[in-house]
């Protein structure tokens, strides 16, 4: 069992998506930073594969990378000449999101919230004014051959998070045995979302997730999702403005709680795998 189940009492963060150019390099870097990393497998369609950093609170970080499939050459060529939308015309909404993230720019790019019924949540979000795409089944083949299946429902606005519902037992997708880390990280404390217009993005979060902010001031808009906090704010540096690019909003920085106060501080990664990540003592 998980040491903490708070994230699943009501809507909460299921997982964060971290786009990386090379899964092998990312696994090496995250293990060097004190995390236990589990190889996740290849997604249906064969275009992306992942690895997982599972946390005690039941959430996880997904390291997502392109496979070495020849088809990526055509997708990259289409992206270079502005024809990616046409190249993705036969893809599902969630596949389109994942392909774009696997093409870069990399780092924290998306997150999912866990729900019991993705189709029902999508219908409710539509009633609150959010344009949604139909719920669709997804799958991944684990390295041990077991197939993991789920349902996702995504907003038409790809800068908003998406819903995910497990069809197979959750522990197949999120192996609990991988939740112990040398650096003692155990749960998500805060996710920072950069937004061009924070109030507008926060309003969309309210409609999508049916939650109200717990703080709304000059520092940003703060939401509580289970035991985690999501802060929506404007970029405050050139690095953050460049990271936001032409997106209306994107996840950017992450704080994880750690049981070990000696491990607290900024986690360093190679430049090509940069994620603003801080370990925070669990007393804070």
Automatic annotation (TrEMBL):
InterPro entries: Glyas_Bleomycin-R_OHBP_Dase, Glyoxalase-like_dom, VOC_core
Gene3D superfamilies: 2,3-Dihydroxybiphenyl 1,2-Dioxygenase, domain 1
Domain VOC: 12-165
Source species, domain of life: Bacteria
A Pfam entry, by short name: Glyoxalase_3
Protein name per its UniProtKB record: VOC domain-containing protein
Protein source organism: Ardenticatena maritima
């Amino acid at each position: 069992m998980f040491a903490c189940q708070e994230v699943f009492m009501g809507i909460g963060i299921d997982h964060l998506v971290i786009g990386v150019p090379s899964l092998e390099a990312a696994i090496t870097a995250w293990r060097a930073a004190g995390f236990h990393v589990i190889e996740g497998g290849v997604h249906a369609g064969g275009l992306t594969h992942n690895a997982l950093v599972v946390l005690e609170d039941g959430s996880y970080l997904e390291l997502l990378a392109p496979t070495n499939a020849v088809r990526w050459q055509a997708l990259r060529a289409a992206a270079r000449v502005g024809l990616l939308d046409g190249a993705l015309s036969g893809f599902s909404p969630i596949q389109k999101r994942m392909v774009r993230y696997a093409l870069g720019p990399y780092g924290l790019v998306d997150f999912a919230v866990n729900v019991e019924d993705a189709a029902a949540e999508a219908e409710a979000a539509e009633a609150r004014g959010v344009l949604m795409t139909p719920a669709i089944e997804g799958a991944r083949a684990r390295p041990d051959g077991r197939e993991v299946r789920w349902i996702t429902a995504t907003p038409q606005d790809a800068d908003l998070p998406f819903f995910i519902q497990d069809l197979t037992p959750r522990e197949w997708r999120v192996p609990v045995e991988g939740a112990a880390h040398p650096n003692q990280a155990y749960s998500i404390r805060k996710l920072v979302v950069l937004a061009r217009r924070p109030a507008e993005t926060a309003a969309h979060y309210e409609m999508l997730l049916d939650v109200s902010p717990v703080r709304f001031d000059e520092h940003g808009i703060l939401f509580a999702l289970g035991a985690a906090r999501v802060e929506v704010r404007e970029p405050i540096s050139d690095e953050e403005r460049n990271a936001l690019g032409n997106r209306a909003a994107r996840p950017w920085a992450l704080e994880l709680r750690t049981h070990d106060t000696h491990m607290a501080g900024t986690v360093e990664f190679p430049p090509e795998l940069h994620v603003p990540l801080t370990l925070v003592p669990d007393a804070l």
